[in-house]
């Protein structure tokens, strides 16, 4: 019985090998078609870049791939620069907002100090004005009492 099993395995292995040999060119052909299709898509997507560098020349697949790598590298560098600039702008904006808030706080403190000074100054001047008004009133009263006209008119008895 052993020879029969070996013969059956050999036939099935031969069949698999034959199937594999027949499928391999088809699979390879499909793989090459996928590669060619992707390269054509890259060429059409990056067409203007290719025309800038090599107008009127037939581009090989390797050229298309190299130019694509170059273009993507430039794009990546630009993105990094834009991120750095954006971070810098954000830092400057937050810093300027802090500075603005500090300036506003300083201005508010200065204004408050000025208001306090004006208030204390006006209280002093009001007190001085009240005192001068009081002293002038007192002096007027004293001069009226001493004046001969007023003293002649005043006779309580």
From TrEMBL:
A Pfam family assignment: HLH
Molecular function as annotated in GO: DNA binding; protein dimerization activity
GO terms (BP aspect): animal organ development; cell differentiation; negative regulation of cell differentiation; nervous system development; neuronal stem cell population maintenance
Compartments in which it is found: Nucleus
Keywords: Coiled coil, Developmental protein, Differentiation, DNA-binding, Neurogenesis, Nucleus, Repressor, Transcription, Transcription regulation
SMART domains named in the record: HLH
Highest taxon, organism lineage: Eukaryota
Chief site of localization: nucleus
A GO CC term attached to the entry: nucleus
Domain BHLH, residue spans: 19-75
Coiled coil: 72-121
Oligomeric and partner information: Transcription repression requires formation of a complex with a corepressor protein of the Groucho/TLE family.
Function, as annotated: Transcriptional repressor of genes that require a bHLH protein for their transcription. Plays an important role as neurogenesis negative regulator.
The protein's name: Transcription factor HES-5
Native source species: Seriola lalandi dorsalis
């Amino acid at each position: 019985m052993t020879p029969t099993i070996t013969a059956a395995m050999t036939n099935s292995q031969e069949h698999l090998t034959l199937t594999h040999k027949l499928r391999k060119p088809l699979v390879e052909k499909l793989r090459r078609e996928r590669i060619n299709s992707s390269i054509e898509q890259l060429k059409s997507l990056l067409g203007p870049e290719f025309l800038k560098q090599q107008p009127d020349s037939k581009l090989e697949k390797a050229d298309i791939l190299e130019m694509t790598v170059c273009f993507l590298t430039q794009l990546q560098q630009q993105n990094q620069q834009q991120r750095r600039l954006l971070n810098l702008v954000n830092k400057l904006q937050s810093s300027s907002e802090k500075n603005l808030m500090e300036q506003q706080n300083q201005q508010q403190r200065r204004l408050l100090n000025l208001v306090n000074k004006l208030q204390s100054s006006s209280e002093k001047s009001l007190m001085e004005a009240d005192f001068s008004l009081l002293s002038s009133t007192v002096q007027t009263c004293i001069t009226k009492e001493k004046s001969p006209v007023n003293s002649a008119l005043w006779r309580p008895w």
